[in-house]
Amino acid sequence: MKIMPDDKNTDIIRRNASQPRPIDPTDRRILAALTTRADLSYAELGQQVGLSAPAVHERVKRLKASGVIEATVARIDGAAVGKPLLAFIHVNTVGWGKTPELMALCDLPEVEEMHSVTGDACVLIKARLADSAALEGFLARLYDLPGVSSTQTYVALSSFTERVPQAGITESLSAPLPIRQR
């Protein structure tokens, strides 16, 4: 006679095993180092965070498997590839802004980001283009889309900080502000 395990107990074990472990301070140090230089070897990364190369490798594998690390990519210089003009375009639409036609713009290599936003606009687009003529052509293409009613465009003159999401958390930002006396 075969003895079957108690399903209730094994289900709990299986569920607990699949729950992701929270990100700890060491994970955050690893992520911070990788956002600066993603091509570090596990040995170099281990030296920076105080772990052995195999321990860092296991943590990076877990961070990848859990989706914390989405991809390892090269960050290129826009001007070096012929796209020095950086524009942020607020798009106003009639009704819900997320139309298939608008989402199709994400296929253009000039579109770096597209966000649904609150405020005066429905959609915010970050685009990097060759010049003002390319920006004008992009805006013309936007206005040809059904539902687009207006845009407001901001062209960056210079950029002070441009980076990928950071692992650190500034706890004081979530703290209530003290009441200021007048």
List keywords for this structure.
Alpha-Beta Plaits; 4 strands; 2 domains; alpha+beta; 182 residues; Arc Repressor Mutant, subunit A
Reconstruct the topology from this structure.
Blueprint (H helix, E strand, L loop, with lengths): L6 H12 L6 H12 L5 H8 L3 H13 L19 E9 L6 H4 L7 E6 L6 E7 L2 H12 L4 E8 L27
Antiparallel strand pairs: 1-3, 1-4, 2-3
Helix pairs in contact: 2-3, 3-4
- Name the poorly predicted regions: 9-17
Q: Taking Cα atoms only, what radius of gyration do you get, to the nearest Å?
A: 23 Å
Molecular shape: globular
Number of strands: 4
Q: Return the CATH topology of the largest domain.
A: Alpha-Beta Plaits
Total domain modules: 2
Q: What is the level-2 CATH architecture name of the largest domain? A: 2-Layer Sandwich
Mean pLDDT score: 88
Largest sheet: 4 strands, antiparallel
Helical segment tally? 6
CATH class of the largest domain: Alpha Beta
Structural class: alpha+beta
Strand content: 15-25%
**CATH homologous superfamily (4th level) name of the largest domain:** Lrp/AsnC effector binding domain/regulation of amino acid metabolism (RAM) domain
| End-to-end CA span | 82 Å
**Percent helix:** 25-40%
* Strand order in the sheet with the most strands: 2-3-1-4
Q: Could you spell the SSE succession in H and E letters?
A: HHHHEHEEHE
